[in-house]
């Protein structure tokens, strides 16, 4: 594709992504489900298309998306729910690949077990983007969000490792289960060690992270370093990226400056927005090419293969979730928990929501696209085109079908986070932080200081005490509320409106100074940045 055409294509894709995001914000439809449909429509029109290059996806797209998701996840929350996260991201992925493989071997004419396990590994890992986008918007409980996040972070490494073993067996004709298990454990352990080493290296670069630009450069480079290092050492590069992101995200509050965190967070939100949009558009564009390659198969063979892939993918997840909740309570220990407390079992509504959160995405298509064209003997890879089509159908059925219906399902189930409890915890933490600041002022006051220091201490004390009274007022209102919704405080809302109006007036006056030629543009941008940070501190809603 010539550069001018590629540029036009990229700009058109950005326009579509922005338009779909605007539509999603006003209709409640998940953008991750709408974009593939738009991609399919475009693929059926005359004009250039971009083919899905699996190596580009796995090297340039997957690491930053996984790393960003890991940065925004909670290492402690995932640890508290480690049993179910491991159950879904490792055991369920293995089980899905095996059942699909057996189904292909038994019911699809000419299919081998290795080829079936390959497509099973490709369709096994859910892509949580659509489910999380909906879940956060409708207020899904934090524990379910954590489980979906943790599963999405870890299942890709499991699936890609299984796929590599299945491909090796299909290409070379030899497969050893004990050897495969050993290689899997080695790849997982090695990937975790590489990720921890990369996170430690980032921690050593902490002094550079005080500068926002350097912090952004280091943050953007980290997932690629972790992935390439893992692949170079023949361990799981995907798991290395995830572990590095979890550790770096856990350390970020104490290892980076406020300015660096604000800028880095904004950069990663933009990266996520564009990469996810391009990826979901790209999924839809593959449909014509995939369908064209099915001419050599009987219709009955295609139907049976698709039915097995889709049926197993949709059914095994709820069955596994229900089964694991019926296990004896003694098996529900928190892995890694120092207290050894029992992990709380999932309720029926939570099992239903998690079952419907198993949308598949670009990882499935990228994984199955890595299947080789020929085996070691020079023969065509068995049923490669059929495997591609089955994976594509599974992705479309789950991404569009489950993605579009997840919002009404969650609302029908009545699963909502307790917003009052969350707001209460936030305000208790705010109050505790202010009390810690007041205690520090008392320590400073007891030291030797002059009158100017005394004035500064008293001025700061007055500000902190005023803030503490405001937080305490919010706490009293929250504790007296019987509603699951956050109560509205007219006084608090009025204060927010007043502060926003004052900031707007300051901006308007600065612009008048600039337009009059009194204030240089460089000074205007600096003063605007101060007002932007002040406005950023204001909550978007009462919390």
Automatic annotation (TrEMBL):
<feature type="transmembrane region" description="Helical">
    <location>
        <begin position="273"/>
        <end position="291"/>
    </location>
</feature>
<feature type="domain" description="Cation/H+ exchanger transmembrane">
    <location>
        <begin position="14"/>
        <end position="411"/>
    </location>
</feature>
<keyword id="KW-1003">Cell membrane</keyword>
<dbReference type="InterPro" id="IPR006153">
    <property type="entry name" value="Cation/H_exchanger_TM"/>
</dbReference>
<feature type="transmembrane region" description="Helical">
    <location>
        <begin position="31"/>
        <end position="50"/>
    </location>
</feature>
<protein>
    <submittedName>
        <fullName>Na+/H+ antiporter</fullName>
    </submittedName>
</protein>
<comment type="function">
    <text>Na(+)/H(+) antiporter that extrudes sodium in exchange for external protons.</text>
</comment>
<dbReference type="InterPro" id="IPR004705">
    <property type="entry name" value="Cation/H_exchanger_CPA1_bac"/>
</dbReference>
<feature type="transmembrane region" description="Helical">
    <location>
        <begin position="386"/>
        <end position="406"/>
    </location>
</feature>
<keyword id="KW-1133">Transmembrane helix</keyword>
<feature type="transmembrane region" description="Helical">
    <location>
        <begin position="184"/>
        <end position="205"/>
    </location>
</feature>
<keyword id="KW-0472">Membrane</keyword>
<feature type="transmembrane region" description="Helical">
    <location>
        <begin position="6"/>
        <end position="24"/>
    </location>
</feature>
<comment type="similarity">
    <text>Belongs to the monovalent cation:proton antiporter 1 (CPA1) transporter (TC 2.A.36) family.</text>
</comment>
<keyword id="KW-0812">Transmembrane</keyword>
<keyword id="KW-0739">Sodium transport</keyword>
<dbReference type="InterPro" id="IPR018422">
    <property type="entry name" value="Cation/H_exchanger_CPA1"/>
</dbReference>
<keyword id="KW-0406">Ion transport</keyword>
<feature type="transmembrane region" description="Helical">
    <location>
        <begin position="56"/>
        <end position="78"/>
    </location>
</feature>
<dbReference type="Pfam" id="PF00999">
    <property type="entry name" value="Na_H_Exchanger"/>
</dbReference>
<keyword id="KW-0813">Transport</keyword>
<feature type="transmembrane region" description="Helical">
    <location>
        <begin position="85"/>
        <end position="107"/>
    </location>
</feature>
<feature type="transmembrane region" description="Helical">
    <location>
        <begin position="153"/>
        <end position="172"/>
    </location>
</feature>
<keyword id="KW-0915">Sodium</keyword>
<keyword id="KW-0050">Antiport</keyword>
<feature type="transmembrane region" description="Helical">
    <location>
        <begin position="235"/>
        <end position="252"/>
    </location>
</feature>
<feature type="transmembrane region" description="Helical">
    <location>
        <begin position="303"/>
        <end position="323"/>
    </location>
</feature>
């Amino acid at each position: 594709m010539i550069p001018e055409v590629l540029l036009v294509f990229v700009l058109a894709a950005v326009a579509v992504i922005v338009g779909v995001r605007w539509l999603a914000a006003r209709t409640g439809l998940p953008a991750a489900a709408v974009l593939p449909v738009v991609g399919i429509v475009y693929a059926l029109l005359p004009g250039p298309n971009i083919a899905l290059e699996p190596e580009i996806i796995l090297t340039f797209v997957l690491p930053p998306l996984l790393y960003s998701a890991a940065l925004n996840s909670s290492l402690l929350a995932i640890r508290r729910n480690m049993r179910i996260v491991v159950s879904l991201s490792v055991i369920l992925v293995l089980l899905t690949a095996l059942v699909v493989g057996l189904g292909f071997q038994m019911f699809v004419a000419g299919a081998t077990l290795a080829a079936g396990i390959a497509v099973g590994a490709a369709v096994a890992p859910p892509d949580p983007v659509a489910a999380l986008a909906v879940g956060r918007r409708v207020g899904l409980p934090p524990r379910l969000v954590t489980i979906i996040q943790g599963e999405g972070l870890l299942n890709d490494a499991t699936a890609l490792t299984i796929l590599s073993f299945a491909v090796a067996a299909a290409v070379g004709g030899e497969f050893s289960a004990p050897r495969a298990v050993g290689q899997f454990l080695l790849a997982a352990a090695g990937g975790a060690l590489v990720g921890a080493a990369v996170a430690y290296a980032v921690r050593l670069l902490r002094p550079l992270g005080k500068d926002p630009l350097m912090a952004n450069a280091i943050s953007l480079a980290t997932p690629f370093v972790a992935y390439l290092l893992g692949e170079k050492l023949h361990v799981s590069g995907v798991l290395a990226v995830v572990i590095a992101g979890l550790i770096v995200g856990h350390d970020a509050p104490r290892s980076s400056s406020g300015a660096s965190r604000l800028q880095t967070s904004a950069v990663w939100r933009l990266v996520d927005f564009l990469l996810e949009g391009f990826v979901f558009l790209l999924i839809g564009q593959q449909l014509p090419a995939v369908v064209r390659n099915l001419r050599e198969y009987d219709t009955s063979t295609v139907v049976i293969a698709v039915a097995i892939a889709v049926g197993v993918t949709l059914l095994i997840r709820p069955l596994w979730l229900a089964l694991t909740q019926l296990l004896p309570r003694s098996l529900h220990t928190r892995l890694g928990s120092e207290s050894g407390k029992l992990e709380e079992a999932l309720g029926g509504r939570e099992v239903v929501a998690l079952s419907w959160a198993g949308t598949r995405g670009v990882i499935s298509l990228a994984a199955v696209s890595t299947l080789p064209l020929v085996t070691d003997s020079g023969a065509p890879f068995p049923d490669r085109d059929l495997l591609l089509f089955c994976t594509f159908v599974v992705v479309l059925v789950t991404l569009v079908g489950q993605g579009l219906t997840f919002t009404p399902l969650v609302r029908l189930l009545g699963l909502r986070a307790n917003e009052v409890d969350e707001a209460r915890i936030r305000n208790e933490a705010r109050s505790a932080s202010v009390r810690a600041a007041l205690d520090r002022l008392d320590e400073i006051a007891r030291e030797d200081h002059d009158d100017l220091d005394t004035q500064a201490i008293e001025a700061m004390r007055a500000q902190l005490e005023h803030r503490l009274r405001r937080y305490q007022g919010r706490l009293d209102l929250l504790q007296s509320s019987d509603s699951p919704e956050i109560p509205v405080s007219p006084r608090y809302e009025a204060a927010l409106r007043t502060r926003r109006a004052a900031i707007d007036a300051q901006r308007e006056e600065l612009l008048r100074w600039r337009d009059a030629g009194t204030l240089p543009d460089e000074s205007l941008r600096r003063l605007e940045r101060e007002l932007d940070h002040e406005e950023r501190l204001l909550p978007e809603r009462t919390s």
